[in-house]
Each structure stands twice: as C-alpha cells, then as structure tokens.
Write a structure and sequence with these properties.
The structure is a single chain. By secondary structure, the chain is mainly α. The termini are far apart.
Amino acid sequence: VITAMSQDPPPRRLVLGNSGYDAVVDALEKTLADVLADESLSRSADFPAQRARSA
C-alpha cells in the first residue's frame, strides 16, 4: 500500500490479493462484454447531429 501511494499519481483503485484481483477482473470483463454486446443499440440513442447542434 505504501508503494502504491508513492506512485505519481497514486492509483485511484487498488485491488489487494490474488483472489481479490481475479474477482475484480472477472467482474469487469463480464460488464465490458455486456456493454459491447449492446454497442449498436447504445450508439443509436444519440440525437441526430443537426438536431443536437441546434438545441
């Protein structure tokens, strides 16, 4: 922890231990997969370019 806090900049999040690291990485990979699976739908929610500029 001291080494991490000495970094410039210090980490915003620090996962400690092998099992903690593995659990966090697994959860983040699943979340990313969910987000990527709906990329097209997510991107389709933008306003059309001209409408967004005039608002």
